[in-house]
Design goal:
Length: 316
């Protein structure tokens, strides 16, 4: 293994011991945003060779169910996904993975970038689900790692204007430095109506694509309400299992609400974005640690004061 990035879900398992119905009952190796160098091959592997550096797509589906056959393998019920109990993760020196879920990195793409293809693929999938293209006006809610990768991909896909929101100014500053056209600081004491008004003023109109990357109810509501009639609201953020939303408003204005679950057939596209230079993920890495410093790496990742966006653990 080469690099493993820390994701919010890793921290969640560590701190809370569960995410929804996935409960950590026994010690579990963490990590699923990873890359490495091929040390050994299975007998029938012919797409890779020893010494190749690869990004690892962490979910391997059953390949035979209807979802897999339709090409929507992210919905496969039997998908085996790294660091999702009871499946161990990849934060270890050696790890075995299905060869067709390993993506060979070109020489000029680093192992760090390879690990970042995981969150980047979430951004690619979300932007594809939103049908972002030339001329799109895109509102992103939440400027955490996921909101930021959505921003990078939306710009690369030709969005005309991208506005991103957050409760935290520091995160917005990062978003601005990564290419957000405008930023909007959400203040809890401002009414929903006034927030929508301000966002429309910033756009000089209404966004036709909105992507929630916060999971907060207030944000999901804003995603629906601020979207132009006939537009699309894509929900990536996962907060409470049930949230109150203005469904009739969405219905009468034909705002399509679309979910996102991880990614599907997006790794190659994420790699192409990085390899071609259309997307630069390197600035997302704010901290680097060696595997021996993993405890410190997690402390940094979970501390709001650290200013961490992406914490990377290096295995060699
Ligand atoms: P994060 O917690 O680092 O980022 C969330 C950001 O949203 C933070 O910067 C926070 O300040 C901001 N925020 C919170 N409430 C807000 C509000 N009301 N308005 C605007 N901003 C607000 O998390 P992340 O790693 O960036 O992930 C984002 C979300 O995406 C999480 O809920 C995560 O579980 C989810 N996620 C979903 C998928 C999927 O497959 N659907 C995949 C990965 C992550
Ligand atoms: Zn399947």
């Amino acid at each position: 293994m080469g690099c493993v990035g820390i994701c919010g879900s890793d921290v969640h398992y560590l701190v809370n011991g569960r995410i929804g119905d996935f409960i950590v009952k026994e010690p579990m190796i963490i990590g699923h945003e990873s890359s490495g160098t091929i040390a050994k091959l299975g007998n029938n592997v012919n797409n890779l060779k020893v010494g190749d550096r690869v990004a690892i797509e962490p979910g391997v589906p059953c390949r035979t169910c209807s979802f897999c056959k339709e090409g929507r393998y992210n919905l496969c019920k039997d998908i085996v996904f790294l660091a999702t109990p009871p499946v161990h993760g990849s934060l270890r020196k050696y790890y075995k993975h299905a060869a067709d879920f390993c993506f060979k990195l070109p020489e000029h793409v680093s192992l760090e970038e390879g690990a970042l293809l995981e969150p980047l693929s979430v951004g690619v999938h979300a932007c594809k689900r939103a049908n972002i293209g030339i001329g799109s006006k895109v509102l992103i809610l939440g400027a955490g790692p996921i909101g930021l990768v959505v921003l990078l991909v939306a710009k690369a896909m030709g969005a005309n204007k991208v506005v991103i929101t957050d409760l935290v100014q520091d995160r917005l500053n990062v978003a601005k430095s990564l290419g957000a056209d405008e930023i909007y600081l959400v203040k809890r004491d401002v009414s929903e109506k006034d927030q929508i008004k301000s966002i429309h003023e910033i756009f000089g109109g209404e966004p036709d694509k909105t992507i929630d990357a916060s999971g907060a109810q207030s944000s999901i509501r804003l995603a629906i309400l601020a979207t132009k009639s006939g537009g699309t609201a894509v929900l990536v953020g996962m907060g409470a299992p049930e949230v109150q939303i203005p469904l009739i408003d969405a219905l009468i204005r034909e705002v399509d609400i679309r979910g996102v679950f991880r990614y599907v057939n997006d790794y190659a596209d994420a790699l192409a974005l990085v390899a071609s230079g259309k997307v630069n993920v390197k600035p997302l890495i704010t901290h680097n640690f060696k595997i021996e410093e993993t405890v410190k790496a997690f402390d940094t990742s979970k501390s709001p004061e650290s200013g961490a966006i992406k914490v990377m653990i290096h295995l060699k």
